[in-house]
Design a protein that fits this description.
alpha/beta; 13 helices; globular; 11% strand; 39% helix; Protein-Tyrosine Phosphatase, Chain A
Length: 328
Amino acid sequence: MCERLPDVQKGRSKLHIAKDHEHRKTGPMCNLGCPFCTSLSPHLFAQVNYQTPAILLPMMETANNTHARMIALEGVDNVRDLGGIPVYGGRAVAPGLIFRGGALCGATREDKRILFEELRVSCIIDLRCGWEVEAKPNPVRPDVDQLHIPFYDLDKVGVEYSKGARPGQKVGRDVACEPADFYRSLANPKTVAQMRACLAQVIARTTNGLAVYQHCSGGKDRTGVMTLLVLTVLGASFQDILDDYLLTNISRDAKLEAVYVKFLRIAGGDEAEARRLVHEHRARRENLEAFLEAVCERYGNVERFVHEQLGVGDALREEFRAACTIPA
């Protein structure tokens, strides 16, 4: 299912995060009239030791900045650090350990320097289907572990998702899915087993101080669900998880014209259908809720799902929290 975790040496930087819990709520409108929230709980980071990646220092020194965790790269979209997201017990996710974003196939030399040298990402977890990886492979580096843990892949997982957004269509290289149905489908046992494998890698590596980068194609759907699970285990509230998820729309709306052109092609020139697809394929609260509802219907509740299906008991959860969160 995935490569064996190599032996690693324990030890990571210890950061101290100062309190700054002003929660800002904003709701800008995209050009198609779709409101979305770009809020998160910002934090002011201080007393950083020498091990902190230099690129994170501006983020850690800036209070009340809703975009602080976003990392601008030249050829990779929607990249951000989960560091700073509040979790229960007066703590927050430690910066510099868990990153999320889009596929790395377009990464420039400077992007690679930032990711692998400044941010010290040591493992890439690719959630894409096999055909996506084949069409747009990630850059290969001997010092970075590449794990392919697809949510759907008929050969590797034994299940695929093929239901298109329009009747008779099959999801593929140029056919869109129906987001609500796709998110609900992710609760199937074979995909859940992949989630368990991915989460195990994230926990094992980050508790040993190794930074990981999770991605799918655009860093929204599959990556959004894995991020939801990681943050749930760490003790984040649904609202703070949602706030992070919705930040995807900032990156997406920066290329709104290209997104519309893509969906217009998929819709066969039907402008009304293209506009509907643009709206439905935004990062939306309904998507995460659809996944969680399906989880509860199939497995009872989220806590039981985490324990029994994802294999994260109380002891492992506390070990993860102790290693990957810091005082807020």
